Amino acid sequence: MDFQQIDTKEYQVYYDPESTTIDFTGELSLNGASEYDPIKAFLEQIADSEPRHLTLNLKELSFLNSSGISLITKFVIGLRKKPKIQLTVKGSVDVPWQSKSLKNLQKFLPNLELIVE
Known about the structure:
Blueprint: E1 4-7, E2 11-16, E3 21-28, H1 32-35, H2 37-48, E4 53-64, H3 66-78, E5 86-91, H4 96-101, H5 105-108, E6 113-116
Parallel strand pairs: 3-4, 4-5, 5-6
Antiparallel strand pairs: 1-2, 2-3
Organism: Roseofilum reptotaenium AO1-A
Protein name: STAS domain-containing protein
């Protein structure tokens, strides 16, 4: 799989297959679950390649609405069916929503490594 991305004025989602890191930047405030379908498909395609380790780097994602949080949560829950993948989620203490919301992901995937710094 080559380096892939979703790039808009408001947000970017980049995947680097060498580091198996998905970087989210900008503000994600799409209207409803259906508008998140391209990102959902992108994440599922990456997970289907079953890398041993996968990192979601959300440090530069300044805003994520409830539909986006739901998307990330469902993706994390879906990884339960792929036990070979070790997931790390990186967040920033400087982004208020991340400190509050990201810790909840560990409830859905107990072996998830959460790094908020």
